[in-house]
Design a protein that fits this description.
It is a single chain. This protein has 19 helices and no strands. α6 packs parallel to α8 and α15 packs antiparallel against α16.
Amino acid sequence: MSGIGRASVMIGAGTIVSRLTGFLRNIALVAVLSSVGAAGDAFTVANQLPNNIYAVISTGLLTAVIVPQIVRAGTHADGGRAFISKLFTLGTVVLLVTTAVAVALAPWLVQLYAEKFSADQLALATAFAYWCLPQILFYGLYALLGEILNARKVFGPFTWAPIINNVVSIAGFVAFLFVFGGPRPQVSEWTPPMIAVLAGTATLGIVVQAGVLLLFWRRAGLHVRPDFRWRGVGLRHVGRLAGWTFLMMLAGQLAGVVQSRVISPASGDNPAQFASANAWLLFMLPYSIIVLSIGTPYFTRLSEHATAGRDEDVRTDVGRSIRTLGVFIVIATAALAVAAVPASRIFTTKPEQAVQVAPVLLCFLVSLIPLAVLFVVQRTFYAYNDTRTPFFFTLVQAALVVITALIAGATLPLSQLAAGVALGQSFASIVQVVIATWLLHRRLGGIQTVSWLLALGRFALAAVPPAAAGWLVFEATGGIGGWMVADRWLGAVGAALIGVVCIVVYIGVLALLRAPELGPALQAVRRLVRR
């Protein structure tokens, strides 16, 4: 457990710095594009295309298949070097082909996601896409290299490399503002040099991010060379596993296409693609810092226990990891919900736009705690080489995302469309978690469900007084008309102040309740601060 604790601290520290620099990156991007506008939505659609594929690679195919397979390959006489070389070569070839096909299909991909864009907005989004789609190759290499390092228990580089990406992007966006000025929300304002600087900077950051990981391979004891002899090392087995994750990816991407098409009519004066992306970035802050930093090392441990057939240890790991995640994720959800308006102000150009975007963030937050549970449950299936079962409960989620998005599009006004789609996604995720937990409980003969559900309930009750205290702080400073919403930097200060108040009160309530999880949680925080 000390090894998991050290790895969690390293990942958590890197994630915090990465997210903070990511916030600065998006603040610079809002300064270029404005928080609500046709140009921002055009860039978001184009830049989201490679991001969607990366999300599939990092959380689906690679996580589901590569880590357990490399753990098994580590028992080979050569320590798994031949397997890794062949796998890396095959992965690079697939990424190159995928990237080339995507670039060739750029106009059709953009139109697929943004059917209701005007002709000029589609043209701008397509121009951005030609610059952004090469990111697929480098996102994929980053994910492939990173998961191989994670499987070898070298966790730090995968987490810290995005910081370099953010620094490159910030420098490029600031250079754009220096040369061209901003914000530029209107499609008619954009010229080819502007497009090249903005989208080219976004892609350059991903290139550097992937390249950094190569510097750490020798530390992991890896000596990889191109190897096109792919037969005889179990890649057919990997392919069968990957087939289900590919179908899962396809379902998720189709749901994402429907969401984007439903939101696209709102582009312009209402929250749409760019506003939703920024709300999602805020939503992902606690998820990344808490869930990924604690859950990633647990996944490697789960894979080891599952490989050795130690089901009792797996059940213990599942219960312990959910309870540990719950201590942090519950108060993070409460604090961010209370601070929704000042937090949204960070990524908006006007106070009234923060009020417009905050409901989108709140609708996403409905599923933050369930998604933390899903992270553990889904990866437990992956640890047993089961990618088939996750496909089916993800298929249910994707179907509900589509249904709820279509209902939102048919019933809600444009001003509430993005929030309605976000709420539908949260509802679908909750149903997905319930089904996934039930299936894993059946498979393992129990996963301490009652224990961790009671713990989550206890944490939720403990979070009520902190949330009330945070809301009083917000109202005492003027609420939506106060200083916390007057400026984006003051919004960041206000959100941080609310968060600190909520955390302090939460710790006090847990101490009064004598929650057994409080001690280990405080120890983890102290390790993170010392590091």
